[in-house]
Amino acid sequence: MNRSLKIVFLLLIVLQTGPVAAQKFGYIDSEYILNKHPDYKVIQKELEIVSSQWKKEAQNLDKEIKDLTVQLKAEEVLLTEEMYQQRLEQINLKKKESQEFNSRVFGIDGQYFQKQAELMQPLQSKIYDAIERMTRRNNLGMLFDKAAAPSAIIYTDPRHDYSEFVLEELGIEDNK
């Protein structure tokens, strides 16, 4: 009885630790994957075009403010106190308009970041689907992203880098 109890106990231990030992881990570098994807370059160009237009508008507003300020300084001695205050008010309104524009376009939830999210969402979904398929095919229990912002990965062994498998899943060949 004692021997059969030991065998059952040993069998239970093996069955409990078996699935844990079978867990496979890996990592990818999403930045590397994005830079290899041809759609990413198109998105970056489109964002650059939109961004440069908005920057130009912001620069025009700033130039207007500067011109109004220079004009006010030049005509300061010729203006009455009331006229001076009106021009000063006009300059302050332009400054407020400029700040609102910059906040609306380049702020935390600004149009630039909304446009970026809108353009990147389909590509990110495509990459995520490829990652999911590759993870299932390689029986990975966990996959880390080396490029994630607060990354806790200190060292990575290249043998566990699955970035190339994701690129392969996306149909992108490595052109080193």
Automatic annotation (TrEMBL):
<dbReference type="GO" id="GO:0005829">
    <property type="term" value="C:cytosol"/>
</dbReference>
<dbReference type="GO" id="GO:0051082">
    <property type="term" value="F:unfolded protein binding"/>
</dbReference>
<dbReference type="Pfam" id="PF03938">
    <property type="entry name" value="OmpH"/>
</dbReference>
<dbReference type="GO" id="GO:0050821">
    <property type="term" value="P:protein stabilization"/>
</dbReference>
<dbReference type="InterPro" id="IPR005632">
    <property type="entry name" value="Chaperone_Skp"/>
</dbReference>
<feature type="signal peptide">
    <location>
        <begin position="1"/>
        <end position="22"/>
    </location>
</feature>
<dbReference type="InterPro" id="IPR024930">
    <property type="entry name" value="Skp_dom_sf"/>
</dbReference>
<keyword id="KW-0732">Signal</keyword>
<protein>
    <submittedName>
        <fullName>OmpH family outer membrane protein</fullName>
    </submittedName>
</protein>
<feature type="coiled-coil region">
    <location>
        <begin position="44"/>
        <end position="78"/>
    </location>
</feature>
<keyword id="KW-0175">Coiled coil</keyword>
<comment type="similarity">
    <text>Belongs to the Skp family.</text>
</comment>
